[in-house]
Design goal:
Four Helix Bundle (Hemerythrin (Met), subunit A), 5 helices, mainly alpha, 73% helix, globular
């Protein structure tokens, strides 16, 4: 599903992406690894919403992976494949970190933050 969004809202999504990434890093410092991963995931989601809002005046509003169809036309094939890999790695942890009782490790959190940083960096490069 796709939802129409005013392109002026992209800055709000980008602010949320940056703030979530900052909170992810604080989560690692505080040994709150599950929260660090949740924040990294939300950083990536908001970054991609910023991108599609800016470029296409829309964002995915169904499954989180719906955004991958929207970004296909924005990135080159290689860039898209890298973004997809990073995003799927994060989304794959969403259920486990948010709804399951098992705790995540520092390494898991570090990997999630790296993925979110890569996504945010590539989105910022496209939006500048």
């Amino acid at each position: 599903m796709v939802k129409a969004v005013n392109p002026g809202k992209a800055v709000g999504y980008m602010t949320k992406a940056e703030n979530s990434l900052r909170m992810a890093k604080i989560g690692i410092d505080q040994q709150a690894y599950d929260n660090a991963i949740m924040s990294a995931i939300h950083s990536a989601i908001n970054a991609l919403d910023a991108l599609t809002t800016s470029y296409l005046n829309k964002r995915a509003s169904g499954s989180h992976t719906d955004v991958l169809e929207l970004i296909k036309g924005i990135f080159s094939s290689n860039e898209y494949n890298d973004m997809k890999k990073q995003f799927m790695s994060l989304i794959g942890k969403k259920n486990e970190t948010e709804y399951q009782p098992d705790l995540m490790s520092q390494k898991d959190a570090q990997i999630a933050i790296k993925c979110a940083e890569r996504i945010l960096s590539k989105v910022k490069a496209k939006m500048n």
